[in-house]
């Protein structure tokens, strides 16, 4: 899923909203919170224990999602990778995001340039 952090307008998002952004179950996000305490250990919770994610948390989830779901790394492999090569992964993801935006722009441009009969 393409989660564009620049389009996030709210300060906090519920776990249900974030799960919807990534097309995953809320249980997976809770599980990742336990598996990646360095990245997700600071997710804000209210008195009832409801989770609230800010833009930084969503960015970290996007990174984890990329490694685990898109690159098919094991959780242990993803943890190790994040520990050692976090900067490289972020740069790679930024490049992929930019290429996706360029692709969408070109598709939109083609639609407007193609004559309709």
Give an overview in words.
With 117 residues, the chain is mainly alpha-helical. Helix content is 66%, strand content 6%. It has five helices and three strands; from the N terminus they run βαααββαα. The chain has helices at 15-22, 26-35, 37-40, 55-70, 75-113, and strands spanning 13-14, 44-45, 51-53. Strands 1-3-2 form a three-stranded antiparallel sheet. Helix 4 packs across helix 5 (75-113). The longest helix is centred in the C-terminal third of the chain and has 39 residues, at 75-113. The chain is globular and about 55 Å long. The N and C termini lie far apart (34 Å). The model has no long low-confidence stretch (mean pLDDT 87).
Give a brief outline of the structure.
Helices cover 66% and strands 6% of the residues. The chain contains five helices and three strands; from the N terminus they run βαααββαα.
Radius of gyration: 17 Å
| Helix and strand run | EHHHEEHH
CA(first)-CA(last) distance: 34 Å
**Strand ordering within the main sheet:** 1-3-2
* pLDDT < 50 stretches: none
Mean pLDDT over all positions: 87
The class by helix and strand makeup works out as mainly alpha
Helical fraction: 55-70%
Q: Number of helical segments?
A: 5
């Amino acid at each position: 899923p393409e989660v564009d952090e620049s389009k996030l307008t709210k300060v906090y998002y519920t776990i249900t909203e974030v799960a919807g952004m990534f097309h995953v179950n809320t249980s997976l996000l809770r599980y990742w919170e336990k598996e990646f305490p360095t990245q997700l250990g600071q997710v804000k919770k209210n008195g009832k224990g409801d989770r609230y994610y800010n833009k930084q948390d969503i960015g970290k989830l996007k990174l984890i999602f990329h490694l685990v779901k898109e690159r098919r790394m094991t959780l242990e492999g993803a943890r190790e990778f994040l520990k050692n090569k976090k900067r490289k992964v972020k740069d790679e993801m930024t490049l992929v995001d930019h290429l996706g935006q360029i692709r969408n722009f070109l598709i939109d441009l083609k639609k407007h340039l193609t004559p309709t009969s």
